[in-house]
Amino acid sequence: MSEFFDEMRMPEGEVREAYADYDKWFWQQDASWLRKKAKEAEGVFRKTGITFNVYGEDAAEERLIPFDMVPRIIAAREWRSLEKGIEQRVRALNAFMHDIYHKQEILRAGIMPERLIRDNDAFLPEMVGFNPPGGIYTHIVGTDLVRTGPDEFYVLEDNARTPSGVSYMLENRETMMAMFPELFTRVGVRPVQDYPRRLARSLAACAPERCEGRPKLGVLTPGIYNSAFYEHAFLADQMGAELVEGSDLRVVDGKIAMRTTRGWRAVDVLYRRVDDEFLDPLTFNPDSMLGAAGIMDVYRSGGITIANAPGTGIADDKAIYSYMPEIVEFYTGEKPKLKNVETWRCSDEDSLKYVLDNLAELVVKEVHGSGGYGMLIGPAASKKELREFRAKLEANPQGYIAQPTLSLSTVPILTRQGLAPRHVDLRPYVLVSPDKIDLVPGGLTRVALKQGSLVVNSSQGGGTKDTWVLDD
Length: 472
Description:
The protein is α+β, with helices and mostly antiparallel strands. Helices cover 30% and strands 25% of the residues.
C-alpha cells in the first residue's frame, strides 16, 4: 500500500466517488486519441503564449508551462470544509494586518515577539496609523494547500502580497472545455470562468470614498519582461481595466491619472503587480522606474485604492506563518479550522539544534523565499548539499524555518504508459471586499511531473492541471 493518499483511488483500488464519472468516461476513450489531445493542449498553450521566465540561470529562459489534462477533482463536501477554513484564515490575516499597523495588541499580549515585526523588511512604517479604503489589506489571497489524507488539508503558505497563477487556472479550464465538452455535461463542475468579473466587482467595492461614479480600474505591471506579464495583460483585458506601467501614471489634481488612448484619466483602484520597494520612488527605492512617483501620498490622502495594500508582504513571512494558529485564535476567538504544517523557527536555539540534528529528514526554507528557490529538501539532498545548507543555517539561523517532509497526496497524470500518480498542491483564490469574502470554486493545482518529486513549482519542473469542484 502507498504511503501517500491517492485522491482518485482507495487502497483497495476502487475509484473514489468524486472521480467515478470521470473514470467511466476515461476508460471509454481510445488511448492514442487521448495522447493526441494532450499534444493539442500543448499547442494551444504555445499559441496563446502561456509561458513563464526562469531566472537565476546563465540566461533567462522562457518556457511553456506543462499542462496535464487529467483533472484534479474535489467533492462538494470537501470544498465546503475548505471554504470555512480559508475564510476564517483570511479574516484573521486582515485583522492581523490592521493590528500591527495600529495598536499592535498581539505584540502587547506576548503572542509573538516584537522583533518579528520590528526587524522585518516587509513591515512598512509608512502604513502605520493608516486605514486603507474599506479596511481591506489583502484584496486577493492565494492560499497554498497540501493534502495528506481524506480530510487532512494543511496550509503551506499564505500568499497575501501578490498571488499569481490565476490565468493558468482560467486557461486550464478553457482548454479542457474546448477539448472535452462532453465531459462537462456528464460531470457537474462548478465554474471558474467568471473570476475576472468577480475580481473587477470585488476591487470596485474597495474604491476610495472620493471616487466619483463607476470606479475606474487599472492593472500595474512591471512590463513585458516580467515572468507573469501574460497574466497581467490577460486579467486587465478580461476585467476591462487599463494595463499600465509606471511611466503611464502621474499625479494630476491630487489623484493618480493613467495615460489612455483618450488622454489622462483618473484611476480609482490599482491592482498592482509591482513589489512595495518599487511602487513609489519618492517613498521607497529612489531608483525605481516601475512605480509612480507620489502614489503613496495620493494613497494616504484617500485618492486611490492599491490592491493589495502596501505592507501586506509581512503576512508572507514564513516566521509569521508559524504563528498563524495563534493569530487565528487571537483575532477570531476560534480554533483554526485549517492546520498549519509543524514549523521549527531556526532563530530559536533549541529548534536550531533539532533542525541541524535532523537536517536530512526536513524541508528547510528561507523566511522570505518563494518559488521553490533557496530551500532544502533533506531526503532528496546530497551530502554536499546538506553540508552547504548546514553552514547557511549556522551563519544565519533567523533567515530560515524548517518543516517535516509531508506525504503529499497524489493525483493521476497521463503518461505514455497510462495513468500514473504524481504529487500535487492547490492554490485557491480568495477575493476580499468590505462586505464579502469570495472563494472561487477551484484554483490552481500544481503537479510535480517527475516521478517521486515533491516540488510542484513550475520553475522547478512542475506543471498544472484543471481543478474541478463538484456541484452538490
